[in-house]
Amino acid sequence: MYKVSEIKELIRALDRSNLSEVTVKGEGKEQITLKKNSGVQLVDAAEPVTASAPEAQSAAKTVTAAPPVKEETPVKEEASATKDASKEDVEHILSPMVGTFYSSPSPDSKPYVEVGAEVKEGEVVCIVEAMKLMNELEAEMNGKIVDILVENGELVEYGQPLFALQSK
User: Cα(24)–Cα(31) distance, rounded to whole angstroms?
Assistant: First the structure.
């Protein structure tokens, strides 16, 4: 299994090169193919889309979120309405990578957490999909979710705050 850092380095190397596509084969059946985007590609919705690395599509890897950062700006209005939430003890759970934020394991499932939910260290709070890999993000500490800062299906950046968490 390739590490996210290895994949990112491959992307940077491809971006700096004159190549338009690169395939890297690992041990066993592992393979990853990267292609530069050369324009808009139209896909017929009736045709299934297949990736060059089927193992990567089904792989689920747990990634621990970046360490929470102390809140320096006021929390959104809804969160500040919580009686026991003072801005001194509110921290953020940050996205450890660029990807798509998913609040639940599947579209028809209930979200991992909602505003007001108590979470424990190591508990999965969301998924960030990057390059067809579903990365489960875990809470770094015990606390209460006072705000969810992104919408389901929204693209997120590295280091972007995803949740406001009141530490216990």
Answer: 6
Whether pTM > 0.70 for this model: the answer is no
Q: Evaluate whether 167 touches 91 at the Cβ level (below 8 Å).
A: yes
Separation in Å, CA 68 to CA 21, 86, 99: 37, 16, 19
Of 134, 136, 128, 152, nearest to 57 by C-alpha is 134
- Cα(114)–Cα(157) distance, rounded to whole angstroms? 21
Each residue's pLDDT tens digit, 125-161: 999 999 989 999 999 999 999 999 999 999 999 999 9
- Residues 151, 153, 159, 165, CA torsion sign: positive
